[in-house]
């Protein structure tokens, strides 16, 4: 069994593989690199086999998104390739740096209760700024709005070493996610119904409900292009983010909360957020929000069954950030992580 497997999920991403895979291979520290291809329509697989013979290529039969694709790929690594103690789930549009692996691997090996960890994620284009997808570790407010050390909504901080520590967080980003393999499979992997976006937050929440911890490691840094498969301006991304957030909240909100008042408040705030899209003339995003809400309603019976099952296995309560991030950011003008948590 390998200690660590670096796994890149690819879908029509040959340009990113050409640009970033050489550095991944050069800085793999002897750990195997896998590319799991989700039935790409470009010539990614031909390119990989011709150019990177040392990379282990897994050809998946169809595109099942980030969630289903990684579930299938990691299960194949476990059953066919001998498995690994840890996985690194690495986006194809990530630029790694020298010594990006060892600090996190050391953290995981010396803290057996930590089951997921991320490095600092900085912007590939504006290299001193933290990047949207995870920054220096993520949190979740009581209504399910995500924020990060280094990024709150559309405000991105400059990295000047303020988050170079190692510490627990609520969620670690799927852009560069180190996970303990046995616990990943113990939890059944990602929720494949999410397809893409927020599945890693849902997984981190479920892991913490079993008493495990999620951390961020400030001694490791990578750079992320962002939007490599689905650009942030794409309405389908809006749909997935709004829909999956509702899926995650309904499943995981504590049993002792007033569930439906919180759901209705969140649905109302989602509706109000469409004003921002209206001002920008992004009508398709408004339609995407409506579609997301109706998808949530249609999924309620299955979500309710998942909620009950998770409550039966839960070992510990998970505490969300107790204030409203929306109010602090838009009402009080608190734009940075330190201002918010103060």
TrEMBL record:
Pfam families with a match to the protein in the record: Glycos_transf_2
Record has Glycosyltransferase as a keyword: yes
InterPro entries (alphabetical): Glyco_trans_2-like, Nucleotide-diphossugar_trans
Domain of life per record: Bacteria
PANTHER family listed in its UniProt record: GALACTOFURANOSYLTRANSFERASE GLFT2, RHAMNOSYLTRANSFERASE WBBL
GO molecular function per UniProt: glycosyltransferase activity
Family (UniProt): Belongs to the glycosyltransferase 2 family.
Isomerase is among the record's keywords: no
Keywords: Glycosyltransferase, Transferase
Domain Glycosyltransferase 2-like: 6-168
Organism whose genome encodes this protein: Spirosoma profusum
Stated name of the protein: Glycosyltransferase family 2 protein
């Amino acid at each position: 069994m390998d200690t660590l497997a670096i796994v890149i999920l690819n879908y029509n991403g040959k340009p990113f593989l050409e640009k970033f895979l050489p550095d991944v291979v050069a800085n793999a520290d002897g750990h195997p690199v896998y590319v799991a291809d989700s039935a790409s329509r470009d010539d990614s697989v031909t390119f990989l086999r011709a150019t990177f013979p040392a990379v282990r290529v897994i050809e998946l039969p169809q595109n099942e998104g980030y969630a289903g694709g990684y579930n299938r790929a990691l299960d194949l690594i476990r059953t066919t390739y001998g498995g690994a103690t840890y996985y690194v789930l690495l986006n194809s549009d990530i630029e790694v740096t020298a010594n990006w692996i060892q600090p996190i691997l050391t953290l995981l090996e010396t803290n057996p209760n930590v089951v997921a960890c991320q490095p600092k994620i900085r912007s590939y284009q504006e290299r001193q700024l933290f990047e949207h997808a995870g920054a220096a570790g993520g949190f979740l407010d009581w209504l399910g709005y995500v924020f990060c050390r280094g990024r709150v909504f559309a405000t991105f901080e400059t990295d000047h070493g303020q988050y170079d520590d190692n510490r627990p967080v609520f969620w670690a980003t799927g852009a560069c996610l180190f996970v303990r393999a046995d616990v990943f499979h113990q939890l059944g992997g990602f929720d494949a119904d999410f397809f893409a976006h927020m599945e890693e937050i849902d997984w981190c929440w479920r892991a913490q409900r079993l008493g495990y911890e999620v951390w961020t490691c400030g001694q490791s840094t990578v750079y992320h292009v962002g939007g490599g498969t689905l650009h942030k301006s794409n309405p389908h991304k809006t749909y997935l983010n709004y829909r999956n957030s509702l899926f995650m909240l309904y499943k995981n909100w504590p049993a002792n909360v007033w569930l439906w008042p919180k759901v209705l408040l969140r649905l109302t705030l989602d509706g109000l957020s469409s004003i921002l899209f209206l001002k920008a003339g992004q009508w398709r995003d408004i339609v995407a929000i409506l579609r997301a809400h109706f998808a949530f309603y249609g999924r309620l019976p299955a979500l309710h069954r998942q909620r009950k099952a998770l409550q039966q296995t839960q070992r510990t309560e998970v505490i969300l950030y107790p204030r409203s991030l929306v109010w602090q950011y838009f009402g009080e003008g608190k734009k940075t992580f330190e201002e918010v948590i103060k």
